[in-house]
Every structure is written in C-alpha cells, then in structure tokens.
Amino acid sequence: MKIESNPFGSSHQRNQIFLKFVAFFLLIGLTYRFLITESTVSPIPALQTSPVDPSVAQAPFSVLVVSTKCDIFTGNWIPDASGPVYTNVTCRHIQDHQNCLKNGRPDVNYLLWKWKPRDCDLPRFNPEQFLDKMRNKWLAFIGDSISRNHVQSLICILSQVEEVEEIYHDKEYRSKIWRFPLHNFTLSVIWSPFLLKAETFENVEGVSYSDIQLHLDKLDDKWTDQYINFDYVVISGGKWFLKTSIFHENNTVSGCHYCQGKNNLTELGYGYSYRKALRLVLDFVADPKRKAQVLFRTTTPDHFENGEWNTGGYCNRTMPFKESEGEISSEDETMRDIELDEFRKTQEGSNANITLLDTTSMSLLRPDGHPGPYRYPNPFAGLKNKDQSKIQVQNDCLHWCLPGPIDSWNDLMVEVMLNRELYR
Fold first, then answer.
1. Is 350 a catalytic residue?
2. With contact defined as beta carbons under 8 Å apart, do 156 and 94 qualify?
3. DSSP label at residue 329
4. Is residue 409 left, alpha or beta, with left meaning phi > 0 and alpha meaning psi from -120 to 50?
5. Does residue 399 lie within any of the structural domains?
6. Closest by alpha carbon to 322, among 146, 113, 101, 108?
7. Residues 150, 215, 303, 399: which is the catalytic one?
8. Beta pairing, strands 196-199 & 185-191
9. What is the full DSSP assignment across 336-404?
10. How far apart are CA 180 and CA 13, in angstroms?
11. Does residue 145 carry a catalytic annotation?
C-alpha cells in the first residue's frame, strides 16, 4: 500500500484548504482595521474590560454616564499593595491637618486600596503625560476646603515629576496659585465655599459668631473675575450650605436656613439655597462664549459617628465599607439629588462644555480615609485610655488624609478631562 506523502491530500483538498486560509486572513485583517480605526489616542492607558469581584464592596448607587464603554463612577475599592505614588516625606505640600502619618496615625491599611470601576480597569494617570497635555494651560479648583484638599493631592502626585512653585496666596492662605515652570502650567485654588457672594463671620476654629449673609442671585466675583484666564475648571459646592444663613434676593431678605424663626424670617432650607446657587453657577459656566472646560464635582459625604464635628462625633474605622454598610446621610443625598437634577437641566438640549465628576459613591465607601483625631500631632499623648469614643478629641471626618483615598479622585478627574467626550 502506498502511503500518501503529501500531507494536504488531493488537489481538490488543497484548494479547499487554501480558500479557508485566505478567508481566515481576510477576517484577521478586517478585525485589525476595525480596532485601529475605532480607537482614540489618550494620554492615559485605555480602560480594559475585566470581571467583577463579588467579594469586594460595590458602590451603593450610581449615576447614568453618557458612555457605552464604562461607568467609571460606580465600582468598589480593591486591595492595592503598591500603595500611593507619594508619601508625606516626598511631598512637601500637605496641609498639617491632613498629614495623618506625621500626626501619629498608627495604621497604614487605608493607603493600600485603589478604586476599581465595576466593568473596567482605571489605571493611575501618567503625571508626565498629564503635564505635557497641560503645557501652557491653567487649571483652577473653585470651592471650599475639600477643593483645597483635592488640589493638594494633585500637586503631590505631579511634584514627583516636576517641583511646583507657589506664586501667590491670599492673606488667609485659602486661595493659592502655583506654577510648573518647565511646562508653563498654572494651577490654582479659589476659596469660594458658597460660589455666591456671601458675608461670613467665623473664628479660626470654624465657629460662627454671626449669621452668614448669603446672596442667592449674585456669584462670587473672587472667581468670576478670573474666569476668563482658565482653560480647565473643577467646581463644587456642599457642606457650607448647611450652616445658618440669611438669604438675600433682589436686594431684600427673602428667607433663611436654620435661623429658628429669627426676626420672623421664612425657613426655606438649605435645599432651596443650594439649588439657587447651582443654577446660577451652571448657567454662568455653561455659557458657550466661555472657553473653559468644566468638571462639576458632586458632594462629599462625611463619616461622623455618634455626633457631629462639634458634639463628639468620631471616625475610627480602618477598613473601607462593604456595600451593605455604606449609607449616605439625608443631607448628602438631598444635595446629590439637586446636583444631578441641575446638571441634567444644563445638559438637556445644549452643547455645554461641562461634564460630571461624580466622586460621591467612591467616597462614601471610605470611612477609613479621614484624619479623625489626627488633625494635630499625637492627639492621645499622655492619655491612658486610647478609646477615642470616650475621649473628647475633636475629629475631622470630612477631609481626607494625604496620601489617601482622595488621590483616586485625580484618576477619575484626568480620565474625564482628557477623554471628556465619553462622559458627557
């Protein structure tokens, strides 16, 4: 019996195999062409689809993002042994009240987590490429002390690549301007806790000695007068609207919040003033004549337990919340609902140059990331009882340790800034 030496068989069989090979390579070529032409160039690594780990906490609520690729605002915190990209030693720009390690916080587990969107990966942004993208640009943060906390985090990350120069600060050191000279990149934070014109009366500890006078129909010119200079803006409101305030509209007193019937004023509530403020702000920044690309950041939940900041409240947790544990307060939920509602109104039927930066869900799951009692060095020094729930030490359960969870806000911010068409 003769054994066929040709492994491909007869000529008919060879023709069939040849045609199959041609079809196979045509399919490969078409697939490659489709992938290349559909891709976009991004200064940060592309998001990659990945499975969800059901063992880690999922954010308890989400916002609809106008993107078919990934909702980067909904997800969970997963362990990350690599830790932060900077330390309180390598960054000299950390405000003392947020320098938790320097102030004696004994645990470091809060540094070993990263934000993981539910349906994709979000790598840390590349500071070198970000600085290159921001060459000759100006980025401004407008808001309260959380905005200052946020910008300090960004500066700490970027200063690992290029040291920054502070070129201005106001008398209270609340508003500042920095410059990265090699890139001619300007970065600023503008203190405007209401975003509106307001007269405030507080001592250095944040205790009011007279009611805030809040003008609901006038924006704060501290930021509007500078606005023409900005290429990018991160703007936010929040907690200050919960303070006792007298409302002014059309040059007359229209009501108040938490004024307890003072002078027969009408109690209109913080929801009324916050909605008025956001409508005025969003109308201003969405004006098509203004060049700045705007990121509107949502409210920041606090994690005080068994009291508030001035009534013995504390936050002594050392792990992120699981989904069933994270519960947003009624005040924060109201504020976020107002934010989303006013943002949607701005987006409807317009081509406004504004996108949402929704940090609320990811922040809610991090009760472990606050300074707590470590606002000052060694708050329990000399005390035998180390149970802080029984010791009257003022806690900060609103701002964030640096380094800490707020660093991940910048991963989201940069993704939205540089790939904004995906998130509008």
1. no
2. yes
3. -
4. alpha
5. yes
6. 113
7. 399
8. unpaired
9. HHHHHHHHHHHHTT---SEEEE--HHHHHT-GGGS-BTTTSS-TTTT-S---GGGS----B-SS--SSS
10. 68
11. yes
Domain of 116, in residue numbers: 58-194+287-422
Joined together, the tokens standing for residue 282 give 């969003």
Reply yes or no on whether 192 is catalytic: no
Residues 6+ apart with CB under 8 A from 136: 183, 184, 185
pLDDT tens, N- to C-terminus, the chain (424 residues): 332 333 334 444 444 444 444 344 434 443 333 333 333 333 333 333 333 343 445 554 444 333 346 899 999 999 999 999 999 999 999 999 999 999 999 999 999 999 999 888 887 889 999 999 999 999 999 999 999 999 999 999 999 999 999 999 999 999 999 999 999 999 999 999 999 999 998 776 667 778 999 999 999 999 999 999 999 999 999 999 999 999 999 999 999 999 877 778 999 999 999 999 999 999 999 998 999 999 999 999 999 999 888 888 999 999 999 877 788 999 999 999 999 999 999 988 677 789 999 999 999 999 999 999 999 999 988 666 555 555 678 899 999 999 999 999 999 999 999 876 666 6
Q: Which residues contact 219 (CB under 8 A, 6 or more apart)?
A: 195, 196, 197, 280, 281, 284
* Catalytic member of 144, 145, 147, 302: 145
Q: Which pLDDT tens digit goes with each residue over 219-243? A: 999 999 999 999 999 999 999 999 9
Q: What is d(CA 142, CA 284) in angstroms, rounded to the nearest whole number?
A: 14
Structural domain includes residue 62: yes
Domain annotation covers residue 349: yes
Helix (H) or strand (E) holding 212: strand 212-219
Ordered alpha helix ranges (H), 256-329? 270-285
In a domain, 142, yes or no: yes
The whole-angstrom separation of Cα 42 and Cα 122 is: 13
Structure tokens at 217: 């129909």
Backbone angles phi, psi at 267, to 5 degrees: -75, 110
| Cβ-proximal residues to 192 (8 Å cutoff; 6+ apart), any chain | 142, 143, 144, 220, 222, 223
What is the tally of structural domains in the chain? 1
Considering the candidates 358, 368, 396, 407, report the single residue annotated as catalytic.
396
In angstroms, the CA 264 to CA 248 distance is 15
Helix, strand, coil % (nearest 5) of the chain? Answer: 30, 20, 50
DSSP characters over 150-205: HHHHHHHHHTTTS--EEEEE-TTS-SEEEEETTTTEEEEEEE-TTSEEEE--B-TT
Which tokens go with 144? 């309260």
